Amino acid sequence: MGSMADASAPDPLLRVENVSKRFGGVHALKEVSLTLYPGEVLALAGDNGAGKSTLIKIISGVHHADGGSLWYAGKEIKLDNPHQARAHGIETIYQDLALADNLDVGANVFLGREPVRRIFGFPFVDRRRMRVEAETTLRGLEIQINRLDVPIRSLSGGQRQSVAIGRAIHWKARVLIMDEPTAALGVPEQRKVMELIANLKESGVGIIFISHNLIDIFQASDRIMVLRRGSKVGERRTSETNSDEIVRLMVGG
After folding, report:
1. Nearest CA to 168 among 198, 200, 142, 195?
2. For 158-205, what is each residue's pLDDT tens digit?
3. How many CA atoms within 13 Å lie on the side-chain side of 162?
4. In 3-state terms, what secondary structure has residue 6?
5. What is the bridge-based pairing of β-strands 223-228 and 231-237?
6. What is the C-alpha separation between 161 and 167, in angstroms, rounded?
7. Which of 17, 31, 130, 178 is deepest in the core (most CB within 10 A)?
8. How far apart (Å, rounded) are the C-alpha atoms in residues 174 and 14?
9. Can you give the pTM of this predicted structure?
10. Each residue of 55-67: pLDDT tens digit?
11. CA dist 7 to 4, 42, 189, Å?
């Protein structure tokens, strides 16, 4: 199925065309296609083993597809690793967040990309610049964290999720893949993450949203794409479907 957008829609940020992937005898993805537009949330729904993780790992450069193609901003791209995906503005926030518990917020926003300044010719990590830039990014996203200088392990689950989102946006993400972003969060923190997603949409970021929680999917997404056993079995505008139909697609009923 191609795009569900009308003719006046902007060009897609991301296009995945007929992507397939095998792991040994397992056909994890079978000619799956998707489109993602600026300022849109596309939810991926499907049971465990449906192919959601394999698909996002291909888009984020972790896995090579065996067939098919990826297009970003109208140009075909080849991704050999996650660094190349990030260079194209494709950032992924996995469920474990990949934050360094012992470092503060600024150090986590710049993790692996620390700015260096020279004092008497010797290089030092510029911690003040990291903290100031992290604070500016978080404030722009309306993220409230009172202490940016404490180890990130002392923050709540929702704050940690916010820092991971802030890191992606600081590095100019235009496509943001969010894997179970509300898992293990309390209701107020889930609400805050949903507000963040709305803010990102306003700024034109395209979001691929993966969740087992259909309530979250219906709250956050504009379109829902359903995978089952490695195949795309349906795509619906969120406003034109309901959870019963999505469940039927997921289980093949």
Report:
1. 200
2. 888 889 999 998 988 999 999 998 887 888 888 888 999 999 999 999
3. 30
4. coil
5. antiparallel
6. 10
7. 178
8. 10
9. 0.87
10. 999 999 999 999 9
11. 10, 19, 37
